[in-house]
């Protein structure tokens, strides 16, 4: 089985996509993001999946995308912010190198703004992010083999810490 060199988890705005692309470049490996895989599978953007079929259907596609990517992607893999909600996904992460990009409310709100492209944050992003962070912190921590704090830091600085972590 081919394992990702690093799986990134964290809340919306933690930088999984931004840091993941830079990290893959620094390591000279490919980058994959389950949010993009789901959009390719569904043939439409995530907000449209939420509108047309609902969140439960999105989560079903997400479980399939996570399982497929963990089994086949050798590079850097970013998971969607809510992937850790499913017990099946948390179990699938056991044995992988999983970096939790942590972010607290102030920076998360600044980064996601009015939540464009993020259907769960379409209404009242600050209150919703607070709820999501409180609900998910323990789940991100449960699956993580390392935690990297991103608050007040530039993506390049976060990437450098992860590269050092991976090189042991
Ligand atoms: N460490 C950082 N410092 C400042 N801005 C950042 C940092 N990381 C990401 N950003 C910015 O925050 C925004 C959100 O980042 P990004 O899309 O990478 O988050 P994400 O974790 O992939 O979110 P989602 O779960 O919604 O996919 C982007 O505009 C990005 O440029
Ligand atoms: O936090 C979440 O539940 C989500 C985060 C995004 O990455 C997408 O997976 C989707 O918008 C749901
Ligand atoms: Mg992303």
UniProtKB/TrEMBL annotation:
Enzyme class: transferase
Catalytic reaction annotation: shikimate + ATP = 3-phosphoshikimate + ADP + H(+)
EC number: 2.7.1.71
Residues that hold Mg(2+) according to the record: 17
Names of the cofactor(s): Mg(2+)
Binding-site positions, substrate: 35, 59, 81, 136
GO molecular function, one term: kinase activity
Keyword set, alphabetical order: Amino-acid biosynthesis, Aromatic amino acid biosynthesis, ATP-binding, Cytoplasm, Kinase, Magnesium, Metal-binding, Nucleotide-binding, Transferase
Residues binding ATP, per UniProt: 13-18, 118, 153
Pathway assigned to this chain's UniProt record: Metabolic intermediate biosynthesis; chorismate biosynthesis; chorismate from D-erythrose 4-phosphate and phosphoenolpyruvate: step 5/7
Record keyword Magnesium present: yes
One Pfam assignment: SKI
Protein's UniProt keywords contain Lipid metabolism: no
Main localization, broad class: cytoplasm
Compartmental location: Cytoplasm
Free-text cofactor note: Binds 1 Mg(2+) ion per subunit.
Function: Catalyzes the specific phosphorylation of the 3-hydroxyl group of shikimic acid using ATP as a cosubstrate.
Family, per entry: Belongs to the shikimate kinase family.
Assembly behavior: Monomer.
Designated name of the protein: Shikimate kinase
